[in-house]
Specification:
heterodimer; A: mainly alpha; two-stranded antiparallel sheet; 6 strands; elongated; B: alpha+beta; Nuclear Transport Factor 2, Chain: A; Archaeosine Trna-guanine Transglycosylase, Chain: A, domain 4; 2 domains; five-stranded antiparallel beta sheet
């Protein structure tokens, strides 16, 4: 009997090493076996958390909850595959949030955007159209379209203004290749625009693909690419400077010009500028000269026709009288020193 | 608000000197503090430096205007004077045109001045001279450009245009939204 007692004792001791697989919980835990997730709604014991036993308490709690999860797994149907027991997990019930933000709507291409703005809708073309020249139905695109076209344009006219030896078929093919290339560039540009990547701006894309602002930039860059950064390059009539973001960086020497604010105080700079504006040599204005001459002559004539005051009935009133009053000054020879011969006026 | 580039300052002074000649200096060289020209949304503003300092705490986007709007630069870099500049141009005007009371309203609706509407005119003004237009009781109404010189005016017939309309105080109502 002693032996039996011993064995039982040993077994009990061994059992004591393992904790029981049943766990008592105040509130039931939520289980999602599909994602191997267990959520414990029970409150943590504040006293335990505050005490030194915190780590042990948390470890025990985790063990208990894990035990519950394992229990749940064991309740599933199990099967044996190559000496290991395998359970098939059910579909997960917990909805996990996405890691990344959901993708937005596809960015419209330039044409699509334009068409949307203008309200242009795509017209569906017939798959086959009747060709009167060939007298049969011809596909508008795709399989056998090229063949049909070849049959139709089996001969091409060489226009009068073109060299008679040109290969019109080659020309037609070139035109088509160019179109394809242009379309490809535009497709790339659309991708660039959609992904908001920096596109290299340098280089000249050719008149087909470049936008007007790109052409303008190319002209400005080319002009300022001289040894003297374009300082002595003549301006074309109605020429415009390239503008926009980052254009300055492309133009050699442009950065230096950027700041127009000198050390000179603003007021003095302005006064200097005014001086230069006002001191500009006046253009020889024949009309003005004639009118001044006429004015002088008229005044002289008025003076000659007697020293009596100007007609009282003059409509001009004060203004003209003032002008007449000025007249004697003119005869002192200050007005036109160069015109001595002409100044044959009667001196008073 | 930024300082005008040298090119634009030159354009501005050239324009102003068409109306007030050498008196442009008076706008800059003032006894009552420093005044300067600033550019914002292609418009030129004439501001006292004291007020300019106060305006500096606003960002570009929030900013509407400060001081007096003198005019607007077109895309081809030409300056168009606004009527708001009149109060600064009128006192210094060298060449003046007075319109008859009967034509005042016509002018304020934006019409050119014909000989028949002309009351008085400064002597010796050449053709295409910038002038300030006054009513007969010396109230500045706007500005324009002479279509004919003073001497030619005298011999012109009553219906010919004497002064091209450029701007008038009626614009305060007509172009209220784009003026400042």
């Amino acid at each position: 009997m002693d032996v039996v007692q011993e064995v039982l004792e040993k077994h009990r001791k061994e059992l004591d090493k393992y904790k029981p697989i049943t766990v008592e919980k105040h509130l039931e835990c939520r289980l999602d076996v599909g994602t191997l997730l267990i959520t414990d709604p029970n409150d943590l014991d504040d006293r335990q958390i505050a005490s030194a036993e915190k780590e042990n308490y948390l470890r025990a709690l985790t063990r208990d909850n894990t035990q519950l999860l394992v229990n749940a797994i064991w309740e599933l149907n199990t099967e044996r595959v190559d000496e290991s027991i395998v359970a098939k997990l059910p579909e997960p019930t917990t909805v996990l949030p996405r890691m990344r933000k959901p993708p937005g709507p596809r960015v419209l291409t330039k044409w699509e955007k334009f068409a949307k703005e203008k309200g242009i809708t795509k017209k569906k073309k017939e798959k086959k159209t009747y060709d009167e020249v060939l007298d049969k139905w011809v596909p508008t695109y795709g399989f056998k379209r090229a063949e049909a076209e070849q049959n139709k344009d089996w001969v091409l006219e060489v226009p009068q203004n073109v060299d008679p030896n040109t290969d019109m078929f080659q020309k037609k093919m070139d035109l088509r290749n160019e179109k394809v290339a242009k379309n490809e560039i535009q497709r790339m540009k659309n991708i660039v625009r959609a992904k908001k990547i920096e596109m290299p701006r340098s280089g000249y894309l050719g008149p087909e693909a470049a936008t007007s602002s790109q052409l303008l930039t190319a002209v400005t860059v080319a002009k300022s690419s001289t040894a003297s950064v374009g300082k002595f390059q003549n301006k074309l009539p109605k020429e415009r400077e390239a503008r926009g973001l980052g254009v300055k960086e492309l133009i050699p020497g442009a950065k230096r010009k950027q700041s127009h604010i000198a050390d000179q105080p603003e007021k003095e700079a302005n006064l200097d500028l005014i001086k230069s504006v006002l001191n500009k040599k006046p253009k020889l204005d024949v009309e003005k000269a004639i009118s001044l001459q006429k004015q002088d002559e008229r005044l002289a004539r008025d003076a000659e026709s007697g020293n009596k005051p100007a007609k009282k009935s003059s409509k001009k009133g004060k203004g003209s009288r003032k002008a007449v009053g000025k007249k004697p000054k003119g005869n002192r020879g200050q007005r036109a020193p160069g015109k001595k011969a002409a100044a044959g006026r009667k001196r008073r | 608000m930024k300082r005008l580039s040298e090119e634009r300052t030159k354009i501005l002074f050239e324009k102003l000197s068409k109306y007030i000649g050498t008196n442009v200096k008076q706008l800059i060289d003032r006894a009552d503090g420093t005044y300067c020209f600033r550019e914002h949304r292609d418009r030129v503003y004439y501001v006292s430096e004291r007020i300019l300092k106060l305006s500096e705490c606003f960002s570009q986007k929030q900013f509407a205007c400060v001081g007096t709007c003198f005019g607007k630069f077109s895309k081809t870099n030409k300056l168009k004077l606004h009527i708001t500049a009149l109060s600064f141009i009128a006192p210094y005007a060298q060449y003046k045109v007075w319109v008859k009371p009967s034509f005042e309203q016509q002018f304020l609706y934006g019409n050119h001045i014909p000989k028949s509407g002309l009351g008085r005119i400064t002597e010796n003004a050449a053709q295409y001279q910038g002038v300030v237009v006054y009513s007969m009781n010396d109230l500045p109404l706007g500005f324009g450009v002479l279509a004919r010189s003073t001497t030619d005016c005298k011999s012109a017939d009553p219906l010919t245009t004497v002064c091209f309309h450029q701007s008038d105080i009626g614009e305060y109502i007509r172009a209220e939204d784009s003026l400042f």
